Input
Amino acid sequence: MSDLHIYNSLTRKKEKFEPINAPHVGLYVCGPTVYSDAHIGNVRTFTSFDMIYRYLTFCGYKVRYVRNITDAGHLTNDRGEGVNRMESQAKLESLEPMEIVQKYTVGFHHVMEMFNAHPPTIEPTATGHLIEQIEMIEVLINKGFAYEVNGNVYFDVKKYNETYNYGALSGRNIDELIAGYRDLDGQDEKQNSIDFALWKKASPEHIMQWKSPWGMGFPGWHLECSAMSTKYLGKDFDIHGGGMDLKFPHHECEIAQNNGYCGHGGAKYWMHTNMLNFNGQKMSKSFGNSILPMEFVTGNHPLLDKGYSPSVVRFLFLQTHYSSELDINIKGLQDAEKGLKKLMEALALITNFELRITNDNSENQKLSSDIQHLTSSCKEFMDDDFNTARVIANLFEIATIINSIKGGQIKKEEISNETIALMQKTLSDYLFDVFGLKPVEENTPSKMDDVMNVLIDIRKEAKVKKDFSTSDAIRNKLQEAGIQLKDEKDGSVSWSI
Output
């Protein structure tokens, strides 16, 4: 199969990947919370695990890839208190919660398709697995790892820590956690301040609530992933992944729930992607640098110079190791666009070379040996915790050799048909099959801008002539096509998809 080694966040070291039931691999990735648009950080996480899924498949493993959808509401803090953001968004948009779920799930799927990410094998939802979550809570209560107070159920972290190690994944110390907790609403119900909610009692006005043995309520945030990963991948499975921000408390709590439920901590290997910055700053709305995936594609954001192909953005991500922080800037995007174009052009060149019979005396043995080393080491780098950056460096070296053949610096007779085929296969395998990239379509974003500018000008002209039926028709038809026009205070018109 493969001599793959991956960094395991649980053991904090790089380990040889040995699937529990090889060649079958169980991969669980924490999916999106569907109460708002997917952000570019989501895209990096999910395209990273798409690359991992692709490479495992490329190596011959049979992967069951499970990625959940959080559609049962999402509380704002890690202890189970706070505002239900699903309901808040529903009220803000005057929609039913499940309309919010449908709207943003469809949007998320569209973004994933645009960035050429494979759909998971199974995509379960939190609301579709309430029976499993309630059953898990009942078992935890019966085993003494959870307790009920006034219709709320909490996980007993201190009790759990008598047998297991709460903090094994994140490296947190339980005493320091207790000392660091502030006195928040609902703390008087808990036996320990660090206990987290498994089930929350719903107030009468709470829209999303379900029947349970403890009354009407809704599940805690951490519970769904434990229930669904166990159901579809078993008590022991191979890989659990997600963003670095989920390591604590979400993944820590998952391990605790799984151990308490069945004596098994779930995944053998825990993997985490790192955070994105833009121009050296954390991406956030407060900094004005929170750019949506579609805005990267259209260029419709003041911090961008133009739109970039989804493959260019994906290629930019791949040039940094998935576990490292990545700073996005305009130069990086421009360089990624040029680099991807260079690789695709090299692949096109080598694919179109005429086959020839090389005289053994004319073949450059050292050059052939260097090329074979470049191609074989691509797999070695991928086996070293998916080191895509080093693979890309090799691909650029192969592209340089191909361009040297085209330019005449290297004679065609110096390279055998087998070596030509090897370069072509290596570029194709890694660019398409493993990295999931596509050739960049020239000028697609700018053409979209040109078309939109024409429509906006026609609409402005119609409004000046008081032809409101035409101006309204343009706006409405664009809205039906998924394009939103916005009249700005300064008289300009912006658009977004």
